[in-house]
Amino acid sequence: xxxxxxxxxxxxxxxxxxxxxxxxxxxxxxxxxxxxxxxxxxxxxxxxxxxxxxxxxxxxxxxxxxxxxxxxxxxxxxxxxxxxxxxxxxxxxxxxxxxxxxxxxxxxxxxxxxxxxxxxxxxxxxxxxxxxxxxxxxxxxxxxxxxxxxxxxxxxxxxxxxxxxxxxxxxxxxxxxxxxxxxxxxxxxxxxxxxxxxxxxxxxxxxxxxxxxxxxxxxxxxxxxxxxxxxxxxxxxxxxxxxxxxxxxxxxxxxxxxxxxxxxxxxxxxxxxxxxxxxxxxxxxxxxxxxxxxxxxxxxxxxxxxxxxxxxxxxxxxxxxxxxxxxxxxxxxxxxxxxxxxxxxxxxxxxxxxxxxxxxxxxxxxxxxxxxxxxxxxxxxxxxxxxxxxxxxxxxxxxxxxxxxxxxxxxxxxxxxxxxxxxxxxxxxxxxx
Length: 433
Known about the structure:
CATH topology of the largest domain: D-Maltodextrin-Binding Protein, domain 2
Number of strands: 16
Number of helices: 17
Keywords: Cell membrane, Lipoprotein, Membrane, Palmitate, Signal
CATH class of the largest domain: Alpha Beta
Protein name: Multiple sugar-binding protein
Subcellular location: Periplasm
Organism: Atribacter laminatus
Pfam family, one: SBP_bac_1
Oligomer: single chain
């Protein structure tokens, strides 16, 4: 072999070795997924993501976006054609995002042997109900949430307040705290999406546990917003304001201020969800604060039906180039080990996994055997949700009446019908006008 041939062979071998080295480095480095998430469940993702990265050699760029900025941020990133692989967002966006083809259809993953933890029978009954669109699954629930009353035991004992068992019982809280600077009951009214949440605690009882079915019938146009049970719920909320149970002052409270006032003994009772305890109360509780938890009062003696949903949901972006890796992460996130970790912070959506926290365990126990009513704004068009928020705020401030609120929302829906709006696919049924 002449000198030229030897040099050529040497160069070829060097190039081959360099190529192999780069391939090895590339394989070792794995892929990087982009995960865009709202504020729910951050404490869980902060622990699960490093574990999955170590297990697989892949990486996740975790982008956490405040709730009020999430929708605009996600849509701007989609418009810019930036990388997105995994999305976790508030359930109220399900219908809108489905119609925009944002989440991928992941129904086949439930029968794919590569993802042994993604199986319908592993999820608690009802957890997947609102993840179906036109009979297919687009979202995976990580946790469930339900609503309760939190109260200050010391205030209740000092003023002789009884835990309300009916809505009418709430009046004695306001009566016994009259003349004090303690707010009887409050919620995060400054964040007006909580106004519909206030309403939802009543709707299941007003519809005999059939609020989801009534909401679907309303979407179809079979039931009007001016129907007696809708108006009655608005009347009860106005009554609570008129009696001083909830106050106009509470309408100006955000999450952090509400938490601070409650822990300072300036609010006796708050209506919130189970996530509020995990994210807001528990980190700030001290040994000298005696927290009480009570079920939603009923319209008649007994326990009211809680409203709730699968609150932390994860989906795969429909245009991801890393489908297998994204599904592998979801499979890891719903494994038994991950679910047990999640149970430290909220109610896992996985069957057989109970909360390890005593307060969360108490909430589960008090509602044992009572089905959770789904939050019905997940069925509504964004225009109806926004109308409901703003009109309830006006009602609570005394600027309108229950029947006027109902008529206003009905007018919004009638306009949508005239425009030919498609209200999407819910629970496998296509609703359109």
